[in-house]
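Translate sequence into structure tokens.
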Amino acid sequence: MSQLSTRFPGGRFTGLQRLLHWLMAICIIAMLFIGVGMVSTIAPKYVSLVTTHKTLGIAILILAVLRIVVRLRSGTPPLPRDLPGPMRLAAKLSHYVLYALMIAMPLLGWGTVSAGGYPVKLLWGIQLPAIAPHSDTLFTLLHTAHVTLAFAFFALILLHIAAGLFHALVRKDGVFESMAR
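Result follows.
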């Protein structure tokens, strides 16, 4: 039996990898909706939405770093051998971009709040240090990058879901099952 088949019985990600994937999926989707709700309201719930958004962002950052460490240690199951080259390349590149955005988005948000001169307060009274100097110009730049990349992240998530469904319903090649229960 090869080392790969020992590490990925049945061609599946490890239990920890699947747990982190689905936990992060819930957090990221919640984050996107909270972000939209946050910027579209002036109601009193705005402050709690912002606090929840910041807390989820930091949680996603921590989980993303953990997920990268687990992925580097555990690897991934192989893609199907008959997967066309362009699809194989798209799968690899899209995962790199997803991981980059899972790290960049929280850091951009944290930097935006810091550059705006606002306290970085999370739920339960936790306060983080500023990671950027107070600067209106930097605030505008970071905020614009955060919002723009949020739309790109949302689009990439939709493509990721579509690819998963394509593998599950059309190709039926085990890729979806490698991450599903």
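Note: The helical segments are 3-7, 15-39, 45-74, 85-115, 136-171, 175-179.
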